[in-house]
């Protein structure tokens, strides 16, 4: 197999942004889930679903830093994940109801399938070792997901929360296995590309928030309260945009100076700062 090597800086392709639309759709679905269940239990349910969906997006985005989107194999993988992900995200509002199996089966199909795909595309020895360990951690979490899908009510939430915690622990600890460690500074990783993907995704997400506010304003009667709430919503979106992008510039500068781009890229993709080196 041919070894894959990628530069630290690559242009984000239209296909990658097209792929992101399915996960911007997921943000709206998560919002509907929380609005339909405005309780502490509903908030925890939404958090668990968010972490699962975010993991799908982040690991798929990470995969594209290793095998560029210009590669036909990567294009096919992205389109497949996009298609399956659409069904997964559509199931979000009913994931704790009658669509639990739809959510879990599509989630595991993406997570496990994409990782197996990465192990077959010609990564170098160190990267293959890392992704084998990632696959082991995903398999450890899978029984929790499946048991939760077979359970009802609060039991499903407990099992799925345990699955999310297992996967999150693996991500934050760099997927260790007994007696097997890697030095992350020696692993090829296009962290700059991952950072740019995250920034562009947020632009799309903020744009969706503006469109939603505008659509709601169009359909509502023009009364003082309508104008006030629309103004507050738009002001909040602008404030979040400013806060995110002022911080993201700092992260980009830090990445350009760091001696461990792999670890810093992982930090950016999981919003942790910083993870432990492998």
TrEMBL record:
Pfam families on file: LtrA
Coiled coil: none
Annotated TM spans: 12-31, 43-65, 77-96, 102-122, 134-151, 157-177, 198-219, 225-245
Matches recorded under InterPro entries: Low_temperature_requirement_A
Keywords annotated in UniProt: Membrane, Transmembrane, Transmembrane helix
Protein name listed in UniProt: Low temperature requirement protein A
Organism for this UniProt entry: Streptomyces coeruleofuscus
